[in-house]
Design brief:
141 residues, alpha+beta, Molybdenum Cofactor Biosythetic Enzyme, Chain A, 4-stranded mixed sheet, 5 helices
Length: 141
């Protein structure tokens, strides 16, 4: 997080690793620090959040290898990823990945990777291990 906020390019090396792993059929996790980083005031703190969100969107926009699925954690983050990075204009909710965790599929022509399973994992849903359990189950399925 500190490198990102200093303006270092952390996206390029993450992309290189992710592209190689996805090409081999492996799952990749891109996550932000759970450490709360705040600015000097409310505006500065909002700017930090925006910087992090832009980096996640930038990563997904620059990713060229189609993953098997995408899970986005957090409501605002999920919306940004869907609209800005995946260009999803409309999607069908095909079910639940877990209770309260919708699974989307977009066959819309505008979608970057049509038919890609997209999980919108709200930040306040599930147990502490729910996200881990979901990924574990999808890997073995």
């Amino acid at each position: 997080m500190e490198k990102l906020l200093k303006g270092d390019d952390i996206i390029a090396p993450a992309l290189e690793t992710a592209e190689a792993k996805i090409s081999k059929g492996q799952d990749v996790l891109i996550m932000t620090s759970r450490k709360l980083v705040t600015g000097a005031d409310e505006r500065a703190s909002l700017n930090i959040g925006s910087t992090v969100a832009r980096a996640l969107v930038d990563f997904l926009q620059r990713l060229t290898t189609r993953p098997r699925y995408i899970i986005a954690k957090g409501g605002i983050t999920s919306a940004d990823m869907a609209k800005q990075a995946l260009n999803i204009q409309k999607a069908l909710i095909v079910g639940q990945a877990l209770p309260g965790v919708p699974l989307w599929k977009s066959d819309d022509e505008t979608s970057r990777w049509r038919g890609l399973p997209y999980v919108v994992f709200p930040g306040n849903v599930g147990s502490e291990d729910a996200l881990f359990e979901l990924v574990r189950d999808w890997r073995s399925g």
